[in-house]
Design brief:
CATH topology of the largest domain: Rossmann fold
Strand order of the largest sheet: 3-2-1-4-5-6-7-8
CATH superfamily of the largest domain: NAD(P)-binding Rossmann-like Domain
Structural class: alpha/beta
Radius of gyration: 21 Å
Number of strands: 8
Low-confidence stretches: none
Distance between the termini: 41 Å
Largest sheet: 8 strands, mixed
Number of helices: 11
Shape: elongated
Number of domains: 2
Order of helices and strands: EHEEEHHEHEEHEHHHHHH
Helix content: 40-55%
Strand content: 5-15%
Length: about 280
Amino acid sequence: MSDPAAPKVPALLLVGCGKMGGALLAGWLERGLARRLVVVEPGPGAAGFAGRPGVELLSDAAAIAPDFQPAVVVLAVKPQGMAQVLPPYRRFADAGALFLSIAAGKTLGFFARALGEAASVVRAMPNTPASIGRGIAVACANGRVRPEQRRIAEALLAAVGEVGWVEDEALLDAVTAVSGSGPAYVFLLIECLARAGVAAGLPEALAERLARATVAGSGELAQRSAESAASLRENVTSPGGTTRAALDVLMAADGLDPLLRRAILAATKRSRELAD
């Protein structure tokens, strides 16, 4: 459904159409955010968008029409390959295009070196629930980004979920660790909860169903409720009951809190390493 209040992009170039790039592209098309979309994807990721009105699929940057000038270039390629991918697109930075990157660890300084100091760049970290329109992204803009470009970047990210902004780019490493990588932690929780159910005697299929539904339902309740997560937890916990017995293990000194803290710090450290 088109959003009449959102800024429209006359021409948009998407570089990379894997899972996240494809999720963004689907959101933009649903909301009619771009009048013309050119997608550069050498693999099969963009095949599902073939034939869509206003979408042009290319396998290589060399195939971009010489007179094509995007207002926005969205970089949805893996951070490890970013340095090799960027050179053909620098001409668009020189012409004033906004660059929106969703590559973990690649800093605004990296893009200034690759695209030129005058490049307008927004760096963002979305997450995979974007594929169902329930993602969250946090973004940071360099000093060259104009207010209208910031609004465009927000509209493009908001097509697949919530958007937040930070002024301190260093915070994006922790954002990456918490929300960017966070879905994997939740999926691991489902796996562990199901395995624990099997260990307690449940059939495997039932344990998997219970784990999925419980995590999904609890997440939706947390999303809709005005109460804090702590209050929601307390609402389930009766003194001396079964939940209390489990929480005594999970909330012990060596329980879930310090374990997850170590995990987040490890992911944050890795995000900083990717910048190098």
